[in-house]
Amino acid sequence: MSTTLRIYRDTEAGTASFRMNGNQITLDLATGAITSLRRSGSPEFIGAPCALVDLAWPVHLDYDPLRMHPCAKYHSVAPKIATDHGSVSITWRGMALNIDIPKDKIPQGEIKVVVTLSPNEDGQSIDLRCTVKNGTDNPVRQILFPNLEGLSPVSGEAEARFTTSLFHSNPYEEQTSTPRSRERFYGENRTVAGQFFSPAGFFPANGADRAMGGRWFDFGSLKAGVSLYRQAWGWGPENKYWMGSNDTYWVKLNHKNRTMRIASMQYLNLGKGETYDSGIYVLTPHLGGWVNGIEPYRAWVKKNQKRVVPVPQCMKEWMGFRTIWMGSGYPKDEEDANWTYLDFPALAKDIADVGLSGMNLWGSTYTGFPMTKECFYPEYGGFDGFVAGVKKAAELGVEVYPLVSMVQIWYAEAQKRGLQVDASWAETIKAVPVFRAPYMKSWSSHNMGNLDVDWWREAVMQSLRFWRDEAHCPSIAWDQYVLPAANDALHDLINEYRTETQAMYPNAHFSAESTFYMESDIDNCDSQWTWLWWQEGVTDFRPYLYAVETERPNMNVDSSPLYAKYIFMDNLMMNAYPSKPGLMNGSAMIADYPEFAATLKRLSALRKTFLPFFTDGKNIGECAMTKNGKGSRAGFYTLDGAVLGFAVLDENTRTTTLTLDITEFSDATRFVLDIFDETGELLESHPVTAKTTVTLKGEPTELFVMRFTPAGKRA
Asked: Contact, 267 vs 140, CB < 8 A?
């Protein structure tokens, strides 16, 4: 990484240009905004001036909407642009305002804003940092930084993608203004207000539209794009009681110039004499799809992971598990139980027959503090019946493991300990409403907001050891992996149990109902049990799987063969929980849905055939393609120079053509392409080059496998 950098100023054009880590950048001398950003061979990433920073500076009351913005219309202030040791700084002493406020109304003093662009040590990326020092009596209430406005749809609006760890979308399509979309209240209409996304974990926080699953995103296409992530990990940085959920991103279409704005949004109350420091955001312009922009973030994740137990091999190999919901917690009601412990052998056979490996139990016992044999319902067969069922399932190749619920102290236990009951979790079809009926007591609870409590930690460890040593269930799924504010007590407790158990049961695994704390989950979890189901056209966890490589998120499927194929091809941990109509999840046998069961059998056989790609390959999503596919959903893996692809035809499609370029994913120039159908039958085999097209023909929703085996190395 060179530290020599020169700024070329063109006073006639009013620009300052420089090259940083292979990126050519042009700034507007009058405003400091980026007017051009390119890499060698890339299209232009900036379609309108990118101002990088935007401040809310309300002067109550007439001037509440007052903002400071480099490109605003009034009271303009040109910045100072300078270079030092390879970095470029843009310094504003005061900044243009968006309202023509009279000078005598402008608070006295200076707001100094410095944005620094520095070459990242990876040789490709740019580190962005912003400091804001308030020298006025008026507080700064919001900072948008990085404020990446004016982003160009590099391959046209139809090909544009906003990609996060958990989803991709086309904001041009989602925010297009139509007569229908304009009927909604403008303040909540995404065509006017834009969209908000939170990076904390698997559920949106602070009213955001969707969760991002991590502090990374990419905007672009399969041709080129820009990635951004924040170099922050764990609690904070702005709010020590949150883990990234305050880092909301705003995505907004400019309907006039058709560019996109993506800004990190921080609320604050920056008073006189105080300074805000954003820390470092890493911007990575790149050619190709998101996989070429996520590498710096992937390295950041690896640097910060602190696992005490490696992911068991079985968790890499499993296609998935199924969940049974044994009942709703009222076993004295003879109509309450879907299953008893005596049903475990039949359920295990049903699971093994389709190639799944685990049976997760919901509602199998009462949660005691600590757990004892008396917590097992006699109506279901008692403790001895439970253990016998677990052992019989193991003989059939199916591991039984419970969902343990210990963040809640249920009503009877809470009463004993004098704890306030503050939440109802009753979930029975005999209640109105079915979930959390406020008048029901037995499954109301005290939620443990503080886990630094000796009796709780001791009871939890004793209970986990009971499940392991007496109930023969060393693997655990944890209900609500919710950490107390700014505290790692639960994280540390699970680490203690896992370290202790791994020496006894090397294949014991830990999953959890992940919530807002991905950056803790990945240290503990091998997989998840989270309320996630396939959302057509949006769900895409492949960037997460590429970057994290430890915790495999689950994806729930009731009985849809199509969604099972999507889950399979993405290497998500499949949770099958087929239901009887009108009853709770997991209340039916898989065999009750013959088409679904047959699909799972075929997918299981395919996974075994191509297992090394799933366990050891890299999941590059659709990045082997040069443009979005029409009529199908496709994804690819790389392993030792070979490439494996899957494609599923859309529900009303019988043919699709994929345009591919796998040059950067293999050292080979020539390949043998084998195409299989979802039964594993070889349909065709022929030589191809790294740049090729593949046409697939079949029935709607049919799955195809494409294997590219290297046949010739590059010279």
From this structure: no
